[in-house]
Design brief:
By secondary structure, the chain is an alpha+beta fold. It has one domain: Translation Initiation Factor IF3 (2-Layer Sandwich), CATH 3.30.110. The protein contains three helices and four strands; from the N terminus they run αβαβαββ. The longest helix is centred in the first third of the chain and has 17 residues.
């Protein structure tokens, strides 16, 4: 068997397999617990766009100063975001607090 021909076929097989792969990125949307309605609409529109393109979205809420006393507002905001994008994405990781941040990860809905 010709070794050069073998190497060529192997590289073609690898190239074909690589062509069929999809790379999923994690996009991040940052907001504050008192984000206003219009700003929230813009952020949700971006989340939907990212989910439709097949990327995961990490929604982060940052607390500053006395906002740490009202982390329940942050949880409510994340629940509201999850409700509004439920037809485009599913919650892969529920709201979790890490220091002064509250985060949730959304993944795209599986297409049939």
């Amino acid at each position: 068997m010709d070794y050069g021909k073998f190497k060529y076929q192997e590289s073609k097989r690898a190239q074909e397999a690589k062509k069929k792969q999809t790379v999923i990125q994690v996009k991040e949307i940052k907001m504050r617990p008192r984000t206003d309605v219009h700003d929230l609409d813009v952020k949700i529109r971006n989340i939907v766009r990212f989910l439709e393109s097949g990327d995961k979205v990490k929604v982060t809420i940052r607390f500053r100063g006395r906002e740490m006393a009202y982390t329940d507002q942050g949880y409510d905001l994340l629940v509201k975001v999850a409700e509004r994008v439920k037809e485009f994405g599913v919650v892969e990781q529920h709201a979790k607090r890490e220091g002064r941040q509250l985060m949730m990860i959304l993944g795209p809905v599986k297409k049939k």
